[in-house]
Recover the amino acids of this structure.
């Protein structure tokens, strides 16, 4: 966000809008991802927070072990290099 917006305060608010609000709406915190329809269902399936919520609920509420949650870790492991690559690609070079 800060690569596209010049003000730090605006970047903080932009980050909240782009990350926190969709994470709450589409990750299954309020409504199950299986009940979402259309574009909301697609966003819920590709958003990494969905898999984090599954891992957190499985770990703390259901006492599931790593093998039970392994399929939820795969999307998170894919998201790490993708988001890091996007960050490097969009980062503006600073003068020395």
């Amino acid at each position: 966000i800060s690569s596209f917006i010049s003000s730090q305060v605006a970047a903080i608010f932009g980050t909240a809008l782009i990350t926190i609000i969709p994470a709450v709406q589409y990750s299954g915190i309020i409504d199950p991802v299986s009940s979402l329809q259309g574009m909301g269902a697609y966003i819920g399936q590709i958003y990494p927070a969905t898999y984090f919520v599954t891992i957190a609920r499985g770990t703390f509420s259901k006492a599931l072990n790593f093998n039970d949650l392994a399929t939820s870790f795969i999307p998170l492991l894919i998201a790490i290099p993708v988001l890091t690559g996007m960050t490097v690609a969009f980062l503006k070079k600073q003068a020395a």
User: Anything to note?
Assistant: The CA atoms of residues 17 and 47 lie 14 Å apart. The first helix runs from residue 8 to 26.
